[in-house]
């Protein structure tokens, strides 16, 4: 279905616009005080004649309508992702339909219905983490139902799955989210140096090694998310102004480049020092001879776009495998099978976690304040940085910054003096 309308803020309220010409659509109640009311009205415009969520519906019917609402509201102008749309439909198809009482009305939904759902799903072998995610989706749905005045249904604010001991496994590893492994300075240095050495020993012909070098360097220098790295363009780097702007992401499943980010805090401008400048000059010099017309910092091999997430993930794991951090099987289609690895959680986040941990160390040393910390990390609130990344202990000496590693990696050895003489000649 083509999305013709969107919800947008105006004067501390919410209005509905046509996507093509940004003209305001006049509907009853507009402008809305609540974003949820505006979204509900927008959904009605996209679904004329369709039944909205009502208290007279069964819980199962209402949840399906809610999932459809998410899908209808998704467009390239808002932050509803394809993952979010798929998640609610998956919860509906695999959890709600098999285990929820199909007769109970939304308006009659009570604590007992939730407990019955939980027990039925558990008895059928649903694991704890899956149950926890389903409960999270149901809580969100019921809270939205109350906000949108669909139904005066059960308040789920105080419902906690941890109050039901029988669903909680004895093994803590099956309960808590795997902590992200934060790499040491020595490992980071080796990963960057190994990639650089392979690249230079190939006389610039090993494109994969060059990309690994750039990927590891960007993650460590700036703590970028993978989608932010993919969306990074040469125009995002201003060598004269000495800035790097994070202003978009690249998500293939969402249609490619998006002029939106994870949150408002993610749109940020980072200052570049002399060594950051040196790195980008070197990388631009390499790109000029490789993919001159491709605007992205990490260009794809064949298409005029960025390297895919699969490719970046593959190169990261190749670097990890060389350091003994993973026993991996690399498929011809670019897929990576992780046979075993000491890394926990998402290894792609290891560099970002280290970056944010170092920011928090700077706060403790009174070198940065909370606003600077959250801005550098790309968060709306400082508490996000402190709560997610504040539980790591790493060797964050004041001078332990990526640029010192980069400096060592890119030319302080006599082996590469000639190359860097040429580089400085062309890029100074």
CATH class of the largest domain: Mainly Alpha
Name the poorly predicted regions.
393-428
CATH-wise, what's the superfamily of the largest domain?
Intergrase catalytic core
Assembly classification: single chain
Judged by helices, strands and strand pairing, the structural class is mainly alpha
Number-wise, the strands total 10
Question: Given the structure, what is the number of helices?
Answer: 15
Task: Give the SSE order as H and E letters.
Answer: EEEHHHHHHHHEEEEEHHEEHHHHH
Alpha-carbon distance between the two ends? 52 Å
Widest sheet: strand ordering: 1-2-3
Shape: globular
Estimate nothing, just give the exact number of structural domains.
3
**Mean pLDDT over the full residue set:** 76
DSSP strand content: 5-15%
What helical percentage do the residues reach?
A: 40-55%
CATH architecture of the largest domain: Orthogonal Bundle
Q: What name does the CATH topology of the largest domain carry?
A: hpI Integrase, Chain A
| Integer-rounded radius of gyration | 25 Å
The biggest sheet, with number of strands, parallel, antiparallel or mixed sense and barrel status, is: 3 strands, antiparallel
């Amino acid at each position: 279905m083509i999305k013709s309308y969107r919800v947008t803020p105006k004067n501390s309220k919410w209005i509905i616009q046509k996507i093509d010409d940004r003209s305001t659509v006049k509907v009853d109640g507009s402008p809305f005080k609540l974003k949820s009311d505006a979204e509900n009205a927008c959904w009605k415009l996209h679904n004329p004649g369709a039944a909205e969520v009502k208290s007279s519906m069964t819980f199962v019917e209402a949840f399906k309508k809610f999932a459809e609402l998410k899908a209808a509201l998704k467009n390239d102008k808002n932050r509803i992702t394809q993952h979010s749309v798929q998640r609610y439909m998956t919860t509906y198809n695999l959890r709600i339909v098999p285990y929820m009482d199909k007769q109970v009305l939304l308006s009659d939904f009570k604590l007992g219905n939730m407990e019955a759902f939980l027990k039925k799903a558990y008895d059928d072998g649903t694991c704890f983490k899956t149950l926890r995610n389903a409960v999270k989706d149901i809580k969100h749905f019921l809270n939205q139902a109350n906000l949108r005045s669909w139904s005066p249904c059960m308040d789920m604010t105080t419902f906690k799955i941890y109050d039901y001991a029988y669903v909680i496994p004895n093994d803590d590893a099956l309960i808590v989210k795997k902590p992200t492994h934060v790499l040491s300075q020595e490992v980071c240095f080796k990963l960057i140096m190994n990639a650089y050495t392979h690249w230079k020993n190939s006389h610039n012909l090993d494109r994969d090694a060059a990309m690994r070098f750039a990927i590891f360097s960007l993650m460590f220098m700036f703590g970028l998310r993978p989608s932010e790295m993919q969306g990074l363009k040469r125009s995002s780097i201003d060598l004269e102004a000495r800035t790097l702007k994070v202003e978009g992401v690249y998500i293939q499943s969402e249609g490619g480049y998006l002029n939106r980010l994870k949150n408002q805090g993610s749109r940020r401008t980072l200052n570049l020092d002399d060594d950051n400048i040196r790195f980008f000059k070197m990388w631009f010099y390499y790109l000029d001879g490789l993919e001159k017309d491709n605007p992205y910092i990490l260009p794809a091999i064949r298409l005029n776009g960025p390297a895919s997430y699969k490719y970046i993930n593959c190169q990261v794991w190749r670097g990890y495998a060389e350091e003994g951090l993973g026993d991996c099987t690399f498929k011809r289609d670019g897929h990576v099978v992780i046979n075993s690895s000491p890394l926990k959680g998402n290894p792609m986040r290891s560099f970002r976690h280290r970056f944010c941990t170092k920011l928090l160390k700077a706060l403790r040393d009174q070198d940065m304040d909370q606003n600077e910390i959250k801005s550098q990390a790309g968060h709306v609130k400082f508490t996000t940085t402190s709560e997610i990344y504040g539980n790591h202990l790493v060797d964050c000496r004041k001078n332990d910054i990526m640029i010192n590693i980069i400096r060592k990696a890119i030319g302080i050895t006599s082996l590469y003096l000639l190359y860097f003489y040429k580089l400085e000649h062309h890029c100074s």
